[in-house]
Here is the input.
Amino acid sequence: MKAILINKDDNGYSAQFTDVDESQLPEGDVTVKVDYSTLNYKDSLAITGTSPVVRSFPMVPGIDLAGTVEASSHPEFQAGDKVLLNGFGVGEVHWGGLAQKACLKGDWLIPLPDVFTPKQTMAIGTAGYTAMLCVLGLERNGVTPEQGEILVTGAAGGVGSVAISILAKLGYTVVASTGRPEQADYLKGLGAAATIDRNELSEKGRPLGKERWAGAVDAVGSHTLANVCAGLKYGGTVAACGLAGGFDLPATVMPFILRGVTLAGIDSVYRPKADRIEAWNRLGTDLDFGHIEAIMSEIPLSGAIAAAADQMAGKVRGRVVVDVNR
Here is the structure.
């Protein structure tokens, strides 16, 4: 089978597009013929070696996949079933989706939602599923469209793009923060009412700022997240799901104890199955299907390594779908 294979040895760290014998697949109770995977930020970290994402070698990256069950000893799945996977350490500690086949634990899989094709699910992928979890987090904390604007940081990325589309369809007024002003038309096409320059948020700010937003979806972290917290309205919530700007949080307690702000952490990797199914069902109703093509670009498996370098350089917009069979 064709795969992206990451190795680390005396010659250093490397990622190759290569042939891999199927006998090397790790243990699992479900074998999936992969139709599509994706290139997430975490996958690009793994492929480029920018961060120690990969925990064992050799490793096939790819935290997402959609495909057809080829063989199964798991009670919930049988040959021919269409399935979907996001996370669970796949692509980090267990071979992932950037290959033509994957051998996995059935407990990690969910049925492919009927409303989506395999390609559409990967156009959404972990980034879009995480965006939906963020929106659910805002809803559960009582953030409603009537309360004011919702800020989305890292707006031109995968999480940001899908979050804007969902929030706009649900009636929220969305402000998109981006470092790429040339993407303003793209972001407004997804439903953003306005854009701001990310530099407004990326440097050290005041412990407590002007009340600007009723809620936020943040995929950036560091000073950006601190400044978002400082700029939330009384009782506001920020759903934090990423660290594109850094894993530190140089903030104070003032927004939390003076304005009752909530910092809601969003994990998508080990989310329980019921939450995953809920999020994907909501994506089926709350994501504007007309935006899926605008959000995604498609590459062959052979192009994943070059695309990973582009993603790390900030040259990739939205979601990258990988056709593993070409």
In short: The chain has nine helices and 15 strands. The longest strand covers residues 30-38. The CA atoms of residues 218 and 302 lie 32 Å apart.
